[in-house]
Design a protein that fits this description.
Layout: E1 3-8, E2 11-16, H1 19-29, H2 35-39, H3 44-69, H4 79-85, H5 91-103, H6 118-123
Antiparallel strand pairs: 1-2
Length: 127
C-alpha cells in the first residue's frame, strides 16, 4: 500500500493512496496525472482547495487502512480542519507529501541470495 505520514499540529497522520482515493481523484480530475496541474494553479486559493481535498481523502484512507491493520492513528482531518490548522507556508511541504504518498511503493526491491554451494565451490582448489 502506498503510504506516508504527515504531521499536523503535532499529530502524525497516516496518508494512504488507496484505490478509493485513486477513484475519487480520477473522477475529480479525469486522471491521476492531472494532480500536478491542480496543485500548481496560479490561483493559490484554488490550489490549496485541491491540496486539502486530496490530503483529506488520503487521511480518510489512511484511517481506514490503519484500522484494518490494527495500527494507532488519530481521526482524519476534514478539509475545513486542514484550513484551520495549516499555514500558507506549509503549502509546498503539503504538495510534496501528496507526491510522496502517491509514489511510495513504486520502487522495486530485489532481494538476491547467494547460491547454497557458493562458499564450497570457491573454497576448492586443485593442486
Amino acid at each position: 500500500m502506498r503510504t506516508a505520514k504527515l504531521t499536523v499540529n503535532g499529530k502524525e497522520y497516516l496518508l494512504c493512496f488507496s484505490v478509493r482515493v485513486l477513484r475519487a481523484v480520477s473522477e475529480r480530475y479525469g486522471d491521476v496525472t492531472h494532480i500536478p496541474e491542480a496543485l500548481d494553479q496560479e490561483d493559490t486559493v484554488r490550489a490549496m482547495d485541491e491540496a486539502f481535498w486530496i490530503l483529506s481523502a488520503m487521511m480518510e484512507a489512511g484511517s481506514r487502512y490503519a484500522a484494518h491493520e490494527g495500527m494507532e492513528n488519530p481521526a482524519p482531518l476534514t478539509v475545513d480542519q486542514l484550513y484551520d490548522l495549516c499555514d500558507i507556508s506549509d503549502f509546498m511541504g503539503l504538495k510534496n507529501k501528496i507526491a510522496e504518498t502517491i509514489t511510495a511503493g513504486r520502487a522495486v526491491t530485489v532481494e538476491a541470495e547467494a547460491p547454497k554451494n557458493a562458499g564450497t565451490a570457491r573454497g576448492k582448489r586443485s593442486g
